[in-house]
Design the sequence.
């Protein structure tokens, strides 16, 4: 399939590479041409603008920053909308506001262009290993047609509902995940305040009723104090702005999410933007210093 | 082994039955003798007081309400302390304050009586199926000696540290678990506010970075609206009083746990004491009504 790809960050590089590997005819565009150099060497075509990319593609995938970035890519004078022919599809895999997804879908529909919002969970590791979870909003028939492409990128593809529903699911994912990180941080902070070996507490809790992927992965980072690997906390900080804007717009009371957002604010203020979000435990330690050295 | 057992509630009944089944010489005492009737029929000996139970036991296991209940059982005039011979061991599997566990351990140690705090996770189902997770504080040598008894009751037995450390781990377990329940409730509430199928959102999120036992078990109850099965929310409400008292005593800042505790307070006020804690979602729905009916 003739596919265009925009958004060659950590995750996008891996995803674009999988698409070339699967035999697709891939074109790329990037703000900085250098970001595309490796992929062009591997066979991707370079396009001079998003419009040029859209004009030669049956499918364009975007994997960029947030709502404003996607809107700009679509609506700018040399943007995707200026290039797409009727029948083409834009699949946005960025994390953006559900309302933005719905607006873009409506604008495309008027011109006979398809849209899916398909945000992902799994981070750079999931992108590299093609094991992303993909939450899809939009027409089921469009998803069915593109299923083979999604299967090149992820291992769990779920159709949630209409346009925007994929983004709602992603917001839910982030709310639950970051709340679990903060709750794990508070639990291990309390254990340390009691002088108890936090590594043993984490081990005891895994596999029980408090067990989760977060306790396994981020809990280990809290125990070791190594916050260099993982997902930049600034990305979750961005997600929480989206989530709280949704809550505001819909009149949805989200007391825990709101409190988690404040802890993320504090982590940003501490210079933790590029640390893994497990560093939320350092916000508590800064408030009430604890020694988390363990014997295990 | 000659074992005494006190606390014949939902979980204690199953645990005592497993001990008889494993061939132990079991004695019981209960506030209301009727609670012990079934077990006495199955071979347990009835004792007239905790002191009498302690006097004939190498090991006494208690599985009762909270700190005050355990202190009363030990310290009353016809309590365990009045009956124990030196060399006996008291294993308390209730959920109590770490400080209470430490005080009782110290009092016993002066008289040559052993102590382990060994709170559990897994609920009535885990007790019935003998798959409880058991978090143990106290002397490792005492645990090693009693390991075969614990293995009759649970499938994950972890030594956390000194006396009280088992209770600290239990507090950590409850903090993480109930925060995950509230975060899941908020996520599904937000999905419903967006008109998105909450069953599909839950399915999409399980197995991903937000995946947890809580989303699997309690998430299903939120989707179905069935809060009759599971663990009474009043027990978690009790646990949160303990956790926040610990936080207060130690000067540990626990912002998310504090907010979760407020939602539990609201659930109690709504008459949800004997509902499963998944009913936390009804607190949000009461604030901002949502239709969570799904098509799945």
Sequence:
């Amino acid at each position: 399939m003739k596919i265009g790809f925009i958004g060659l960050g950590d995750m996008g590089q891996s995803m674009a590479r999988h698409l070339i590997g699967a035999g697709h005819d891939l074109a790329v565009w990037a703000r900085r041409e250098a970001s595309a150099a490796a992929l062009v060497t591997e066979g991707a075509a370079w396009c001079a603008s998003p419009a040029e990319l859209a004009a030669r593609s049956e499918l364009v995938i975007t994997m960029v920053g947030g709502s404003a970035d996607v809107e700009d890519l679509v609506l700018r004078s040399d943007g995707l909308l200026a290039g797409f022919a009727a029948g083409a599809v834009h699949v946005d895999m960025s994390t953006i506001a559900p309302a933005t997804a719905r607006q873009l879908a409506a604008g495309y529909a008027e011109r006979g262009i398809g849209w899916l919002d398909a945000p992902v969970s799994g981070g750079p590791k999931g992108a590299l290993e093609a094991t992303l979870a993909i939450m899809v909003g939009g027409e089921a028939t469009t998803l069915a047609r593109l299923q083979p492409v999604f299967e090149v990128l992820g291992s769990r593809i779920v159709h949630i509902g209409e346009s925007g529903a994929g983004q709602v699911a992603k917001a839910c994912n982030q709310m639950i995940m970051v709340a679990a990180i903060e709750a794990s941080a508070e639990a291990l902070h309390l254990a340390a305040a009691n002088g108890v070996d936090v590594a043993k507490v984490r081990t005891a809790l895994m596999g029980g009723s408090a067990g989760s992927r977060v306790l396994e992965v981020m809990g280990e980072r809290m125990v070791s104090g190594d916050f260099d690997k993982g997902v930049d906390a600034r990305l979750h900080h961005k997600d929480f702005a989206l989530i709280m804007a949704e809550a505001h717009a819909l009149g949805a009371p989200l007391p825990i999410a709101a409190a988690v957002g404040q802890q993320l604010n504090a982590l940003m203020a501490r210079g933790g933007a590029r640390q893994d979000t497990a560093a939320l435990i350092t916000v508590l330690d800064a408030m009430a210093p604890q020694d988390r050295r363990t014997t295990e």
Chain B touches chain A through 69 residues (CB under 8 Å). The longest helix of chain B spans residues 165-193. DSSP finds 14 helices and nine strands in chain B.
